Amino acid sequence: MAGAFSFKGCQKIRGPQIRNLLEAKDFFLFDCDGVIWHGENAITGAAKVVNALVRHGKNVVFVTNNSTRPRENYVHKFSRLGFADVMLEQIFSSSYCSALYLRDVVKICGQVFVIGCEGLRRELQEAGIPCLEETDDPDATIYDCALAADVKAVLVGHDDKLTFLKLAKASCYLKDPDCLFLATDNDPWHPLSSGRILPGCGSLMAALEVASGRKATVIGKPSRFMFECISSQFKGLDPSQCLMVGDRLETDMLFGFNCGLDTMLTLTGVSQMEDAQEYRNSDLSTNHSLVPDYVVDTIADFLPAFEELEEESN
């Protein structure tokens, strides 16, 4: 585990321990769904925590694998839910980072075939990445549809309008070994408030991996690339001064581990304490990278520490 706190290792922290952590860290990375909000409802106390961190001179960014909306929509949502002055530059989504990867890393020359929502396309277009337009007749099949000659990448994101034709066309483009195969993230599913689940990008990616016989390069968490995007914007960023706060062990905690960050699991989302303890007690060493350094019930547990600090400063 990174850091030097004696109480670390999948143990709940509170009170003085949280205060020590807040004083020791300068940079806080938050997942959004299950940490900051549930759908259109902010987690109780989350806005106060984020606002207090900024008031105390801490840097705050939001790292989300949700590729369905452009970053400007997130800015509006933060404002709507009571978060003060969250700016575009603080938001790192898997769709935005995918656009940066295509533009700045591989310097794509050609079109991108996108399996994803309009929000993903908008991020690509704003970065100047040409996306192949869907112009197929509703009755078209893979036997008679047109295939573009200049597709240089296939990018898979969340797509609630996925069709068999999209999957088949993507598989055809990926027959070219020079065509990149990218995925915004590998989240397998997402919980819905009704108790049902929504298949995630990871499930679509897996179908295309089987169909194409290729493995996708994942851009979002738990890949390091998202942290590289943050580091390029915040020069001199020291991983030892960062805390990654998330609700999913297999993405958020593994992302923190991969990037050398201390990690905190909040129990307001997908993963629970029992899941973390199971990974901690596993005989499989790779499972230990999914174990959080710290656990809190909710990020609202930060608030008493801030209240103490503010009382002392008065």
List the helices and strands and how they pair.
Layout lengths: L10 E2 L3 H9 L2 E4 L6 E2 L2 E2 L3 H10 L3 E6 L6 H10 L10 E3 H12 L5 E5 L2 H9 L24 E6 L7 H10 L6 E4 L5 E3 L5 E3 L1 H12 L4 E2 L6 H9 L8 E5 L2 H11 L2 E5 L6 H8 L13 E3 L6 H11 L1
Parallel strand pairs: 1-15, 2-5, 2-13, 5-6, 7-8, 8-9, 9-12, 13-14, 14-15
Antiparallel strand pairs: 3-4, 10-11
Structure write-up:
By secondary structure, this protein is α/β, with parallel strands linked by helices. Helix content is 35%, strand content 18%. A hairpin with a 2-residue loop joins strand 3 (37-38) and strand 4. The protein is elongated.
Quick summary:
The chain is built from eleven helices and 15 strands. The chain is α/β, with parallel strands linked by helices and 314 residues long. Strand 13 (242-246), helix 9 and strand 14 (262-266) form a beta-alpha-beta unit.
Strand content: 15-25%
| Helix share bin | 25-40%
Main sheet makeup:
7 strands, parallel
Unreliable parts: 1-7
Identify the strand order in the major beta sheet.
1-15-14-13-2-5-6
**Mean residue pLDDT:** 94
Class based on secondary structure composition and strand pairing: alpha/beta
Count of separate DSSP helical elements? 11
Order of helices and strands: EHEEEHEHEHEHEHEEEHEHEHEHEH
The total strand number stands at 15
Overall radius of gyration: 20 Å
